[in-house]
Every structure is written in C-alpha cells, then in structure tokens.
Amino acid sequence: MARVSLRLSKNLSILLVIFTYFHPENTTSQPILRQLAQAAPARRVVITLNYFDTCYTALTNQGVAFTWLDQFDSLGSQVKDQQLKRYVRFIRDSYTKNGNKLSNPQKAELFVKAAQEAEQEGDEQMTGVCEHFAGEYYFLAEAYGQAFEYLLLANNRFRKIGYETVPAISRYLYELGLIYYHFKEYGKAIEMFQESARYPAFNPSLALQVHNALGLAYLKISQLQNPSDVKRAEQSFQKALQVAKANKDQTNQANLYGNLSKIYLHQQRLPLAIAALKFDYSLHLNAEKGNLPDQATLSLARAYLLQHQLDSCAYFLGESAKFHQRNQGSDLFGENLKNENYRRLYCDVARQYYQAVNNLPKAYWYLDSMARLDEQINKRYNSEQISLVEQKLLIQKHQLEVSALRAKHDEQQFRVWAIATMLVITSALFFRLYQLTQRRRRQEALANTEREKRLQLEKQRAVDELERARTDLTVFIENLRQKDTLIDTINADLERLPQAAGEPSQIMLDMQHNLLNASLLTNEDWDEFRRRFERVFPYFFTQLHTQFKNLTPAEERLMALSKLKIDTRQMSRMLGISPSSVRTTKYRLRRRLGIDGQSQLDELLDA
C-alpha cells in the first residue's frame, strides 16, 4: 500500500495519484459487484471510482478493465442507477489517461472533449467532473492559466448544482485547496479544505489528509504568530491523528506528531514536544525504509536545550548530523548538507549549545555560518517569489485572454443579430449604435481592469522588495550586534582569567587591546552595508551630498549609522575607533554645518 506523505510538497504531481493504495490482486469482480449492489446510490459511485483508481489490474489491463465496466454497467441497469451508468461511461471514455502514452496536455484535452460532450447532453455533474480533471492535468503541465480556468469552472458548477449532490466532492474540493496552497493562497486553501471536511471522505486517506492539510495551511497563513490560527492548526492535527490511530497507521501518526511538535516547541510546551518527537524519532528509526529522522533529532536537541539538559542536547545534535549525513549519501558532513533550511536550523541549535557550554569560538563559527546561510536562503526565496509572481501573471494573462475571446464571441453574435434586426425594422440602427457604445465601454473597462491589475502587481512587488531589503539590513545589523556581544563576552572572560604572577601578561593585554580596537566592518563589509542601506534608503547619500558639500567617507559612514539609531559605543566598534573619537567627529561636524545645517541634517536623519 503506497502512502502519501503528510507534509505538502511543492511538487503537486501527487494530485492525480494521491489516493493510490493498491488492492490485492483479484481475478474476478464478483466481490466488488456484491458490495455495489448493497450500497446506497451515491456510495456506489465512490466505490467504483476508488476501485478503478486503485486496482492495479484495472489500471494496467484495458481488456479486463472494460469487461468489469460492462458488468458494472449491467448492474446499474438492474438497479436502475443512471448515475452509476454515467460514471462507468466516464471511466471508459477517459481510460487512456492511464499509463504514459499521453502527455499531460493531451490528457487535459481528453477531459476537455469529454466535458464538451457532457455539456451538450445537459449533464452538469459530469461536465464539472471532466473540467476538474482537465484543470488538474493542465496544472501538471504547468499551464496555470488554463488549469485555474477549468478548476474554477468545475467548482462553480458543483456549487450551482449543490456540493452534496456530487459523490466525490470531498476529493475535488481538497485538490483545489492543494493548488491554492501551492500558490501560497492560504486563505482560499483553508476555505476549500474546510468545505471538503464537511462531506463524506472519498477514502480513508483523504479523511486524514484534509485535516492535516488544514493544519499546515493555518500554520502558514500566520507563520505561528496568530494564537487563534495556531490553535486551529493544533485542533486539525489532532483530528487527523485520531483518524490515523483509528486506522492503526503508525507512519502517519509519527508524521502528525512531528507537525504537532512544531507547535509545542513554539509554545514552550516542552514535555509534550519531547514526547511527540520521541514517537516520531522511534518510529522512523525502526522503519525498514525511508530516511533516518534527522529533523526529529534536531528538534529534540532544541527541546532539550530549552530545558537546559545539555548532555541530551549534545547527543541528539550529533545524531541529527549523523542521520542527515547518511540520508544525503556523503561521508563529509560539511559537504552533504544540501538542505539549507536544515543547515540553518542545525547551526542555530549548535550556536546556542556551544554558547551555553561556554565554547565561544565554536559559537561564533556557527553564528557566522548562520549569516552566510541566511544570505543563501534569502536569494533562493527571492528567486522562488519571482517564479511565483510569474506563474500568477500567466494566470491573469490567460484569464484576460479568455475574457477577450468571450467578448469577441459576444460581439460576433451581436453583429449577426444586429444585421438581421436592421432588415426587419429601421429602429434597429439606433439599437446597434447603443450596443456599439456599450461594447466600447466594456472594452475600455477591460483595458482599465488590466492596467489596474498590472499597476497593483507592480506596487505589490515594490512593497515586497522594500520589505526584503529592510529584512536584509536588519539581519546584517543584528549579526554585527551579536558579533559585538560576543567580543564583549570574550573580553570579559579574558579579564577574569587568573594570572600566575598576579598581573595580566603582555599577551593578554595585547589581546584585549586588539579586541577593544577591532573594527567590526572591513572595507568589503562597508560595501555590503552600503548596498543594503541604499536598498532601504535609496536617496539618502544623494540628499546628503546635495545639502552638505565635501563630506569625508568617514563622515558618510557616521551619518549612515546615525540614520539607523546606532548608539555611540556600537558605532565606535563598527568604525574601529574609540567612543570619544565618535563624539569628537560628531561635534566637529555640527560646528562645520552650523545651526541651519544641523536642522537640515536632523530632518534628513529623522525622515
């Protein structure tokens, strides 16, 4: 039985195989026919769809599958179940989707054609089902505009005829929610998952997946910052856990305990977090297949660190590194950590651990590693955001094209009607003029809507870019502050070291002198600082030189740090000079600027 991971993947190719857990091989369809005969009409459809989705023989042997479909159709005639007969025909007409003979776009076109035929026959339900699967295959083909066109068409049809009348509605709503989740539309994803949970689950897997996906969406929508969303996420995971326990599904129990542990760690509910993580750790460790529990052991290390159990923290930190190394298939821990998010979390826990055991050089090394990883992660995040924006633009473009085609189709119909009307009555001319005016207004409204969407998107991208720039600058300054704190800590430790002769040695004095006079920022660091600073305050240096002539580079740096409200002591560390030199430079600058210049400078620094 193939299982689907509870953690939603960005690659949603699982959409069309998410319910695949193969039945044991049968040579006859008699058992399933007896089950169908005894089931309620709506349940017959669900049993049939599940059977032909999951039975290996039915999926791979067309001759046997069609023989069984004939028997299902015959049963539908015997019990006068027209809905079952319609779905049997649907499975037969779309059978070629199985296997690799057709590409995803071809499979999508297969369902589009089936939807058109069902619509011509007046079968709204089957039209919606075919449109839904067409949308899924377009999504897998990365034709996102067409995917949303057909998925939303299907959902609108289902809503129109009543969700409760569609036998497999829980599946369709769940899969639409997954696609919204992929595009980070977490609010809409939650709406779809909640709607799916209101109806009977398509199969045991879906009963668990819906609540788990809902919990993950609640965590994503507020990033653990909204207590209400966190509470709803925990409740959803608990519901999914109840289903997993009822099904005696230990693998999914472990995954759900892993999801719950994130909440418990965030809320400092450490006993619950440790208990959940130990269950996850134990099950994965004893599993015959799958990766070793590197994430669970890393989370256990963090939990024990928060409980100040440093020996346990060190043990699980080492286990996590060992497991991750084996999962990646490399003998070198430093080379095999391809998962930058894992590396970042590992460095953070290691930094705190070594700081707790007073091994400051290692703590500083991991802190520096975190800074480099943050930069790499930010670059990847920016790239992913650009890709997501491009995908959304494709969707908007396709929607506009569809609207334009429909408007053109309406226009053509109108012209035929107008010409016919003009032959009948003269007054049709005035009506034609009126219609032309309305059409022009619609086109202008369409153009205005497109322009407004484009401007809104550009505005949003600018806001996002500024926010990322502020975050980058904040991270840079925070790293400097942490380095400053670490230097103070090391210096304090040096002052407390006992000396054999009762007096500090020259080496110790030199080390303290070097630490106190060390500049936190090299020339390369200043260049990086200026690049990040100008992304947040793009016109600061231009205005500074426009209003105040002949400023030295040192004065520029002093003004930039003053703009960020850096105190004098930290300025001195960053500039590599004493605090008194900073105050002297500020005083000389104020005297040179005079009263009017100082007023302008204050306005610039406070802007």
Q: Summarize the amount of helix as a percent range.
A: over 70%
Instruction: Give the N-to-C terminal Cα separation.
Output: 63 Å
Assign an overall shape: flat
Structural class: mainly alpha
Mean pLDDT across all amino acids: 80
What is the C-alpha radius of gyration, as a whole number of Å? 33 Å
Q: Count every helix, treating DSSP H or I runs of 4 or more residues as helices.
A: 26
Percentage beta strand: under 5%
SSE order in H/E notation?
A: HHHHHHHHHHHHHHHHHHHHHHHHHH
- Would you identify the regions where 5 or more consecutive residues have pLDDT less than 50? 1-27, 330-337
Largest sheet: none
State the total count of DSSP E strands.
Answer: 0
Could you explain the architecture of this structure?
The chain is mainly α. It has a domain at 538-607. It is built from 26 helices and no strands. Helix 1 packs antiparallel against helix 2 (41-54) and helix 19 packs antiparallel against helix 20 (428-496). The protein is flat, with a radius of gyration of 33 Å.
